[in-house]
Design a protein that fits this description.
Oligomer: single chain
Distance between the termini: 45 Å
Helix content: 40-55%
Order of helices and strands: EHEHEHEHEHEHHHHH
Number of strands: 6
Strand order of the largest sheet: 2-1-3-4-5-6
Shape: elongated
Largest sheet: 6 strands, parallel
Radius of gyration: 20 Å
Low-confidence stretches: none
Keywords: DNA-binding
Strand content: 5-15%
Pfam family, one: Response_reg
GO molecular function: DNA binding
Structural class: alpha/beta
CATH topology of the largest domain: Rossmann fold
Domain HTH luxR-type: 134-200
Number of helices: 10
Organism: Micromonospora noduli
């Protein structure tokens, strides 16, 4: 049986390489590839693949929402989610949304092919990196006070309001946010919040 596959990846070069590599497998056929998730459901319903290789984009507010929609609207398609970095929160969210397999973007072609075949056979396929992310979550680098500030920032509160709620000086809150950005490697508050959620700190 030929396994029909849909590839969803926003990076054109990687998407093209994936499609070319998978098409060389005798038991696989890439029936469609899409750049973003906007048209993915329509393509999946039309092409009826056994497996959807879906690159999760951490920058999206809810990177696994489309997984849940595929699970509900196209239950015939098993989702193999790819991510450049798995966190406990992302693993849990992807599996809860209905993903049948998880792989890292740095996995080998042989590993990807094995995972696709497993999903097509009705099995699950969990990348070791994703499993390790659950067993060994990244250490939380923020102090309790910094976490208080980040939680307030996650609510979208301005610096002045955060200062009032935490009984801190405006400058102190600003300093805490600077430290939070440095420790998380984020460029701004929104990115710091996103990274903290992905790592299961919030």
């Amino acid at each position: 049986m030929v396994i029909h596959v849909v590839v969803a990846e926003d990076m054109g070069l990687l998407r093209g390489a994936l499609c070319a590599a998978l098409s060389r497998e005798e038991d696989m056929e890439v029936v469609a590839d899409v750049e973003g998730v906007g048209e993915l459901l329509t393509v999946v319903r039309r092409c009826r693949p056994q497996v959807v290789v879906l690159a999760l984009t951490p920058e999206l507010p809810d990177p696994v929402e489309v997984v849940a929609r595929i699970d509900v609207e196209a239950p015939h398609a098993a989702v193999l989610a790819m991510s450049p970095r798995w966190s406990p929160a992302l693993v849990e969210a992807a599996l809860a949304a209905g993903a049948r397999g998880l792989v890292g973007k740095d996995c080998s072609l042989a590993e990807l092919v094995r995972a696709i075949r497993a999903l097509a056979a009705g099995e699950r396929a969990i990348d070791p990196a994703a499993a390790i992310a659950v067993l060994s979550p990244p250490e939380m680098p923020l102090t309790p006070r910094e976490m208080d500030v980040l939680r307030m920032a996650a609510e979208g509160l301005p610096l002045k309001e955060i200062a009032v709620r935490l009984y801190l000086a405006h400058g102190t809150v600003r300093n805490h946010l600077s430290v939070i950005l440095r420790k998380t490697g984020a460029r701004n508050r929104l990115e710091a919040v996103s990274r903290a959620r992905r790592n299961g700190w919030l």
